Amino acid sequence: MEKRFSTKSMVVAALLAAIGILIPLVSPIRFVIEPASFTLASHVALFIAVFISPATAVFVSLGTTLGFFLGGFPIVVVARAFSQIIFAFLGAIYLKNNPEILQSKKKIVVFAIFLGIIHAIGEVIAVSPFYIGQSLSDLNYQKGYIYSIVGLVGIGTFVHSLVDFAIAYWIWKIIPKKSNRDGLRKCLCSNYNFQRGLIIH
């Protein structure tokens, strides 16, 4: 059973990683604020992984990073994707120890803001060396560090993170559950039948 569960868990994580790579490529909903752009739902798969477990969150984060790298994306995009492992892992660990958060609207809002802040800081740190190294587009330097990096990457990522978190949480709530929500995280980590239902639905 453990081996079977591990295989199912790996399939779920791999599917989420694939979705995380695919959405930025095919999504028609993209907001462009030069010199940055934000693709709606590009972080949804990663947030769902955070809801599942720390291991799944790390796998999906690394999987999307590798996918962007192999896909020939600009290295700054790869770096931003890699930085997301920080908020994903910390968020998943916190949920693992406090699964009741997913049952409280107030707590889930605070949790989303907390993740959004870490997410934004991580991406600003990831992008800053490229700015300092003069390896970004000229428009970034015309706008300046505060606008391009702190504003668009930092604040932009924070807002984007909140929107994608809301979408992921909505999807998560409508996924059929095979046990009550009080045992949600335990179900995800130990119940094979739930994992089968997650894949089917």
Query: Pairing-aware structural class of the strands and helices?
Result: mainly alpha
**Major sheet attributes:** 2 strands, antiparallel
Number of strands: 2
CATH topology: Arp2/3 complex 21 kDa subunit ARPC3
* Overall residue-averaged pLDDT value: 85
The CATH class name reads Mainly Alpha
Largest sheet: spatial strand order: 1-2
End-to-end separation: 21 Å
Quaternary state reads single chain
The amount of helix comes to over 70%
**Sequence of secondary-structure elements:** HEEHHHHHHHH
What features would you highlight for this structure?
single chain; 201 residues; mainly alpha; Arp2/3 complex 21 kDa subunit ARPC3; two-stranded antiparallel sheet; 9 helices; 2 strands; disordered C terminus
Short description:
The chain contains 9 helices and 2 strands.
Give an overview in words.
With 201 residues, this protein is mainly α. The N terminus and C terminus are likely disordered. The protein has nine helices and two strands, in the order αββαααααααα. Helix 2 packs antiparallel against helix 3, helix 3 runs antiparallel to helix 4 and helix 5 packs antiparallel against helix 7. The protein has a single domain, classed as Orthogonal Bundle (Arp2/3 complex 21 kDa subunit ARPC3). The chain starts with a helix and ends with a helix.
List the helices and strands and how they pair.
Layout lengths: L1 H25 L3 E4 L2 E4 L4 H9 L1 H17 L4 H23 L7 H28 L5 H6 L1 H30 L9 H7 L1 H9 L1
Antiparallel strand pairs: 1-2
Helix pairs in contact: 1-2, 1-3, 1-9, 2-3, 2-4, 2-7, 3-4, 4-5, 5-7
